[in-house]
Every structure is written in C-alpha cells, then in structure tokens.
Amino acid sequence: MVMAIGIEVKMQKRMGYWLMLLMAISDICSGSTPLTDDLTKKVRTYIESTWNVLVRDTNQLDWSHSDDKLNRAQTILYVSRKENLQHVKNRVASRSKTSQQHLIIRILPESVSKIHEHGLLYLPYPYVVPGGRFNEMYGWDSYFIQLGLLESGKVELAKYMVDNLIYEIHHYGTILNANRTYYLQRSQPPLLTGMILAYYRETKDKKWLKATLPAINKFYQFWISPPHLNPETGLSRYYAQGEGPAPEESAAYYEHVLRYFKTHDIRDYDKSLYYDKNSETLTKAFYIADRTVRESGLDISNKYGPFGAAIVDYIPVDLNVFLYQMEKETAEIYTILKKPQSAALWQKRANVRAARINQYLWDKPSGFYFDYNYKTRQLRPYLFATTLYPLWAGLATKEQAQAVVKNLPRLLGKGGLLASPYKQGVQWDAPFGWAPMHYFAVEGLKRYGYHVEALDLAKRFVNTVNKGFAKAQVVFEKYDVLDESIHTAGKIHYSYTSNEVGFGWTNAVYLLFLKELSAS
C-alpha cells in the first residue's frame, strides 16, 4: 500500500453534509419526492426531441461542417486513405444541400504535419454530437449518448455510434477525441466495450459482436503500449501526441496560463518544466501536457496541479478503472462467443489490473483512491469524484467501498456530486458537477448495496437539471451543484467559460436516473 504524501489536504469533514444526507435519506424513505411531474415531463420531451436535433452525418454536410471553435466558413472534409474518394464525393454531392463551391473533399495526408487546413473527418454513419460548440462525434461522450439513445428506443442510431467508433479505429488508428483533424493525435477515455455490449444486449446479434473483436484488440493495444504504458507499475497513463497549442483552444487561454506562471509560485510540480522564465514562454512539455489533459476528458482541472501540467507523470484512477472494465467486458464478449480460453486470458488481465490499482492507487488511511505519481512514487491526495469509479467497475473490496462511501459527503453539494471540493477557476473542479461522474457514482453505489445514497444522488442531479430547465428551457453540459445553478459567469477563468446547450451526456444520464427514481 502506497502512503499518500505530497500536498496537504486542508479540508475538514463537513458535518453539514452528513445532516443534509440524513435529511435526504429520510425524504426517500418516507416516499416523498421533490420532483415536479409536469416539469420532469417537459424535460423528457425536450430530450427526446433533441436527439434528432443533435444528429449529424458526414454524408450530409449541411449541419455537420460547422465548427465554432475555428470559425471558418469553408468546409473541408478529409477522407481516410483506405476509402474510395470518388465514392464519398458522389455520396456527399447527392445528399448535401451545402453549396459545392464552399465544399472541399480531400484524402487525409499520411502525416498530420502535412495538414495545413483543419477540417472534419469522414465517418460512414450518422452520429449524435454533444451540442453547442461541440459539433462532432466525441469519444467518451458517445458512451453516455448511446445509453440515452437505447433508453429512448433509438437502437439503430445506437448501433451507428459504435460502428463509427470502430471505423475510427480501423481508419484513423484509434478512437479519437473527436472527428476533426486537430484531434487525430489523441484519444479519449476508453469505453468502447461497454457500448458494444449495450447494443448486443438489445439485439443478441452475435455475428456483429464477433466482427467487433479486431477493433477491440487494436484499441486495447493503443492503451497498453508506450507511451501510454508505464512499465514500472504495469498500469497506463494518458499521453497525447502533437506539438504546440491545441488548435481548438483560444490564444487567450495560453496567455492566461503564462500570466499565472509569471505571478504564482507552484508547489504541485516544478514550474520550470512547463514555463521558461527567461523567454517567458510555455515549454514543449507544457503543450504535451495540455493536449494530454484533453485526452483525459477532464479539460481543464487541477487534478494534476494547475492546468493539469504534470498529467503525464501520473497513473490515473479513472483510466485504469476504464481499462479494467474493458478487460472484464472483453472476457464477457469472448464468453458469449464461446471462446473460453480467450475469455480466461482477458479475465486474468482484469484481475492483474485490479490488484495493481489497489496496490498503487488506494490510500487506506484516507479512504480514497488517488492518482499515483510514478516519478515521485507518491499519491496525490487531491479529492476527486473519480474515487468512486472503482465501485462502478466492482474492483473495490467491501471495506474499500465502505470507506469511500463514508467520505462521500466531502464531494457532495446540494445539487449533486462535485468533480472536486476545490474552487480553482476551472470547469472540472468545484463548484461544478457533471453527468458522467454522477452516472459512475450512482451505478457504483448501487453495486455495493448503497441504494439509499444512490437514489439521493440521482435525485439531486435530476432536481438540478429540472431547476435549470425551468429557467432556460434547455439542458446544459454541466451545473454548479453547490448553488444548483446553470450559470458559469465569474466561476471559470481558464479555457472556454460558457455552459454549452444540448446536451448529449446530460440528456442520457437524466433519462437513466428518471427510470431509476421511478422504479424506487
């Protein structure tokens, strides 16, 4: 067991949270509910209608081409070198209303360095985007979106989501951050096998299931090979390729980072690795870290220090839990296909990873799972909602789960689960809560028998979404769960500060929680 040392967690247990939780438990047990039926129906109607609004198709570029992050009028569609370019051109020309004079279709260069104008990457099937400025198909967003589509009975579209991700693996090398050229050198948290099994359970299509195996194996190798693999621990880390600023990020963000480095002493890491004081510039290592934070899906958070700059030095709880789940689910797939030897191999991989997660990432004195710095050989005791992910995957012992649940009030706000209890001026820390984290937490609590706590958390999240909808008539990507608010003004100081509308994963988790609460 690795002892947690390094930064000191200056936070006392909040008795008010315990009182709030006890009140919520009493409320659930008495059968009362703060859910407003009429409002809930309106939100559900909005979500069901929004799925169609969020559908995109690179064969019909009228909606798909827009990219507010780059703000370019001209549409460029890049096609994999393995595709028939003329075939794609014919399909797009026959099905798009976009003026052909504003449309350029190109074969993707062999090297990313030869891409001089960024554009959309071709996918063969329709897909659902998150919403707002995120007008492309994202890696881990798609996991939650697919769950929502299945809950809404949109089985064919749910299949297309998986088929597109498999297409990315075979044609672009991995599941991408999203299908834009500036995302080609990074992935996102691996949740593919869960999507595959979710569709299979709806259809029992074993032929299709078997056809997914090459993609599963290729995607798995991406995550367990250098630079993602850390040989010392046998666990994996996030690590994105590419140099310089992330093209989708604003220049203002990097100016703000520079200003912060100039004016702040940093105890979390050696600032000189990321900021050259003499030239007053950000270093190559910073830009690698910046891209890597985006691969983690938690952009931006101080989980790995300010701006996540030390991320490549860490073995994250979340990534390795996802890989454990992937190994376990792949074993299940091989079992379904009656391949017991392959199933046993994957289950062995899962067992080994679970043991290593509990060896390196569990801190018994605090009762939390923390990220492990393999260079300093220390845990970083930064309280974060990912401490609940091992419960979702079922790799925690009964005693570990009990300790995590005992600490749950430290991550609770009135409106739901905080990403962290620290206000850092970034969106993946306090005061914000996110649908994915709520989903993993609720499922994990249920798995270990903490049904009252799970229902309480689900209810808080649904109420927060309802309150936001009552004010704005839309659903958002994130919420201030301390104030049960949709507003981000003055709370986010780095990277984009808006609260995007849509919103794919919030829609999905809301529907799943409604089902859970209705059954309770």
TrEMBL record:
<protein>
    <submittedName>
        <fullName>Alpha,alpha-trehalase</fullName>
        <ecNumber>3.2.1.28</ecNumber>
    </submittedName>
</protein>
<dbReference type="InterPro" id="IPR001661">
    <property type="entry name" value="Glyco_hydro_37"/>
</dbReference>
<keyword id="KW-0326">Glycosidase</keyword>
<dbReference type="Pfam" id="PF01204">
    <property type="entry name" value="Trehalase"/>
</dbReference>
<dbReference type="GO" id="GO:0005993">
    <property type="term" value="P:trehalose catabolic process"/>
</dbReference>
<keyword id="KW-0378">Hydrolase</keyword>
<dbReference type="InterPro" id="IPR018232">
    <property type="entry name" value="Glyco_hydro_37_CS"/>
</dbReference>
<dbReference type="InterPro" id="IPR008928">
    <property type="entry name" value="6-hairpin_glycosidase_sf"/>
</dbReference>
<dbReference type="InterPro" id="IPR012341">
    <property type="entry name" value="6hp_glycosidase-like_sf"/>
</dbReference>
<dbReference type="GO" id="GO:0004555">
    <property type="term" value="F:alpha,alpha-trehalase activity"/>
</dbReference>
